[in-house]
Specification:
The relative contact order is 0.17. β5 and β6 form a beta hairpin. By secondary structure, this protein is α/β, with parallel strands linked by helices. The chain is 22% helix and 19% strand. The protein folds into two domains: 74 residues, 2-Layer Sandwich (Uridine Diphospho-n-acetylenolpyruvylglucosamine Reductase, domain 2); 34 residues, no CATH class. The protein is globular and about 50 Å long. The chain contains three helices and six strands. Bound molecules: flavin-adenine dinucleotide (FAD). Flavin-adenine dinucleotide binds next to β3.
């Protein structure tokens, strides 16, 4: 593909090792085959993926926890999936009682990590 921008982060193209695992959502029965998955490690990786997609006219799907009940929402044929699940840092400030969490965290990971350090996260489901 002709593009000024290079994809960065953990990049898995169709045909690469790990492609099948990258396609699997909580419900693994997706019938979409994206061109490439980008597992962003930092904000710049997301920005590069969006630029790359625009330059190559490739449709974009963002993905976080892969837990949607609608199996194909986060994937698209021939597109780019920008997956933020690797961005899962949890920075606790014990002194101020605040925490900054990466967008790729699951509720369980946040709750467990904080509980081990003596904090409860007021997380809820609808
Ligand atoms: C067993 C089960 C139980 C559930 N229980 C509940 C419940 O109790 N309460 C509840 O509210 N929901 C529940 N859900 C639904 C689930 O929480 C929602 O579908 C939620 O959107 C999944 O989040 P995710 O990050 O895994 O999304 P994904 O599956 O990764 O993506 C879902 C959609 O959001 C978009 N998206 C993902 N990340 C981003 C992003 N960073 N920026 C922009 N768009 C993005 C995707 O493109 C896609 O369209 C349940 C689902 C399952 C499978």
């Amino acid at each position: 593909m002709k593009s000024k921008t290079k994809l960065t982060g953990r990049v898995i193209f169709k045909g690469d090792p790990g492609y099948d695992a990258a396609r699997k959502n909580w419900d693994p029965h997706t019938d979409k085959f994206p061109k490439v998955f980008v597992f962003a490690q930092k904000t710049r990786d997301v920005a590069n993926a969006i630029k790359w997609a625009r330059e190559n006219e490739v449709p974009i799907r963002p993905r976080s926890g892969r837990h949607s009940l609608e199996v194909n929402l986060s994937q698209v044929n021939g597109g780019i999936v920008i997956d933020v699940s690797d961005m899962n840092t949890i920075k606790l400030d014990k002194k101020n009682g605040t925490v900054v969490v990466g967008t790729g965290n699951s509720v369980g990971r946040i709750a467990n990590t904080l509980a081990r350090q003596g904090f409860i996260a007021p997380l809820s489901q609808i």
